[in-house]
Amino acid sequence: MVVLHAGPQNLQGPGAVAATLRRRFNPYNAVAYSETNGTMSNSPRQPAHPPLPRAPQPAAPASASEAEPSGGVIAVTRALQVLEAFALGESSLPLAELSRRCGLHKTTVLRLARTLAQSGFMVQREDGDWRLGPAAGWLGARYQAGFDVQNVLEPALRELTHATGESAAFYVREGQVRTCLVRVEGPQALRHHARMGEGLPLDKGSPGRVILAFSGEPGKAYEDIRKKGYHWSIGEREQGVATVSAPVFGMHWRLMGSVCISGPASRLPAEKLEALAQTVIAAATQLSYALAGNTAAPAQSPVRATQWHP
User: Fold this and answer.
1) What is 148-291's CATH number?
2) CA–CA separation, 56 and 59 (whole Å)
3) What is the pLDDT of residues 209-249, one digit of tens each?
4) Across the chain, how many H-helices and E-strands are there?
5) Confidence class for position 130, pLDDT limits 50, 70, 90
6) Would you list the domain boundaries of the chain?
7) pTM value?
8) How is 3-41 classified by DSSP, letter by letter?
9) Does domain 64-138 correspond to CATH entry 1.10.10.10?
10) By percentage, how much of the chain surpasses pLDDT 70?
11) Residue pair 31/38 in contact by the 8 Å Cβ criterion
């Protein structure tokens, strides 16, 4: 029978048995010896062999405060909020108003505005207020240039306005909304005003419904629009406003958008809209040929030009 004592030196004996016992019980005896003599230490034991080098860890992802649930970047979203805080016709806004409209602290808005100013998207006036910078306008101009606004769209809309006496506009689809890309005001004193660039619902108003119909939206209502080649509405999106619209195509019958005329419902009843529909269709056909790169449209309308082509 082997008796263990506090010190490892007491575990001595002749032969292989004693050596084996020393090897097995030395760690326990060392602890007991340390506790008895008050030499306990928190120092970690050194491994017998040097540790292998660790594989490099991947860089830490952006903090939760910098990422959105949708996968976007909050800083970019907030910067866009600041740019979108300006309403049509507002030349400048004070920092406090920008903060209120964005729902952000003034120091955050100030930091964003200064960053945007470095790239020319915002400018601080001498009185401290902020306005949009030239880079914002240049960005919009480049967006419009993708549709050949000056050479094709504006002249066609001016002709349509001259022929109908009403304001004319060209709408394009951006995701789940439509936006007015170009607009030419009519000569009437009483007319409907639309904001260029503002996102509007696709399922309210004839411009959006035409875009949906010729994008392949199912349903009898949209099938009727595809058969007629146009659509008119009165007070569907905005009370007292009447519109009639037709689709505009590009190369290979790719839908580009819709052209429409609009005005007060008191001046554009259903009968008048039906009568003006053919004029709007003719303008849409001319625009389709121009945007497709063929400026010489035939005297007769193309075969089934107003019918939906997938």
Assistant:
1) 3.30.450.40
2) 9
3) 999 999 999 999 999 999 999 999 999 888 889 999 999 99
4) 9, 8
5) very high
6) 8-37, 64-138, 148-291
7) 0.55
8) ---SSGGG---SHHHHHHHHHHHHHHHHHHHHHHHT---
9) yes
10) 66
11) no
